[in-house]
Amino acid sequence: MSSGSYLNPVPEFRPAVKESRPVRLAFEGPSGSGRTLTALLVAAALGDPVALIDTERGMAAKYADRVPFDTQEFTHYDPQSLFASLARAGTRGYPVLVVDTYSAFWSGAGGRLDKVSDEARAGYGGADAAWSKYRPVDRGVTEALAAYPGHIIVTLRARTDTVIEINSQGRQYARRISVRPEQRADIEYDFDAVGTLGPVATVRFGKSHIPALAGEVIEQPGEDLGRTIRAWADDGIPNWPQQTFIARARDPDATVDSLRQLWSEIVAARAAGMAALDLHDEPTTLAQLVENRGIQLRAVAAAPQAPSAPAT
């Protein structure tokens, strides 16, 4: 039985250690619940500078006086464009990236649901075949978010329902509650914690990898929440997908040996799916970038050398 190639070795057992790694957060809630501001305030406590992918027609800019950030606006929400944006942000070394909203790349114009619907209507095998065609793209974006060399915060639009409650004076009133986010059903498994924003400046956490947040309801969520999250993220032995991986993979002086060493570090940091820019500034995965560069360098080394010109 094969033990795998040098790019895909069979992993060995090793002692488990507590690792410090960048956090992956999501904040869900209906319109007006404070998703964007909460995400930015938490982001400010996690690092600087902050980059924000804006799908809300520039609405995040109204908070630029409270949290400085660089922004990139989208009006068409192809998930492959999100992958390309992750590649650019990672290559430029932003330590914190906010995607506001991640839901747009699912249910917005040109998003995943649109692409599957268009493919199914075209008659190429129906809905099942359409989902099968685009599922690898979804996996690529999910892996790129997981392997981004910094902290990631996404916001999610939430479908809502109305419940009737009774206030302290005994009067009934209607309150909107989040039912589920506009994304695939198991989206919460991609994040360390998912906070549901309430109508009066609160965020409620259910299950969470961050012990300090599990089951908590936090009022006025902001930089204090961000500091709590950063303390958890920084606790442990560092082992994270580093932005330097991209620089080393793009290094014009890289060798086959240096790329092989880099690959072992990429595997250890679980960073093979990191979105990166190749030498032509086209988006690709870090694994594909390293592999392609290795192939090119070995081809150059194996090519016959042209004879040198005779001395005159």
Describe the structure.
With 312 residues, the chain is α/β, with parallel strands linked by helices. The chain folds into 2 domains: 19-234, Rossmann fold, CATH 3.40.50; 241-302, no CATH class. 36% of the residues lie in helices and 23% in strands. The protein has helices at residues 35-46, 79-92, 104-107, 112-121, 126-147, 223-234, 243-250, 256-268, 286-302; strands spanning 19-20, 24-29, 50-54, 70-73, 96-100, 151-166, 172-181, 193-197, 202-208, 217-219, 237-238, 275-277, 283-285. The strands form 3 sheets. Strands 2, 3, 4, 5, 6, 7, 8, 9 and 10 form a 9-stranded mixed beta sheet that branches. Strand 6 (151-166) and strand 7 (172-181) form a beta hairpin. The longest helix is centred in the middle third of the chain and has 22 residues, at 126-147. The protein starts with 18 loop residues before the first strand and ends in a 10-residue tail after the last helix.
Q: Mind sketching the topology for me?
A:
Blueprint (H helix, E strand, L loop, with lengths): L18 E2 L3 E6 L5 H12 L3 E5 L15 E4 L5 H14 L3 E5 L3 H4 L4 H10 L4 H22 L3 E16 L5 E10 L11 E5 L4 E7 L8 E3 L3 H12 L2 E2 L4 H8 L5 H13 L6 E3 L5 E3 H17 L10
Parallel strand pairs: 1-11, 2-6, 2-8, 3-4, 3-5, 5-6
Antiparallel strand pairs: 6-7, 8-9, 9-10, 12-13
Helix pairs in contact: 1-6, 2-5, 4-5, 7-9, 8-9
Task: Name some characteristics of this structure.
312 residues, Rossmann fold, 9-stranded mixed beta sheet, two-stranded parallel ribbon, globular
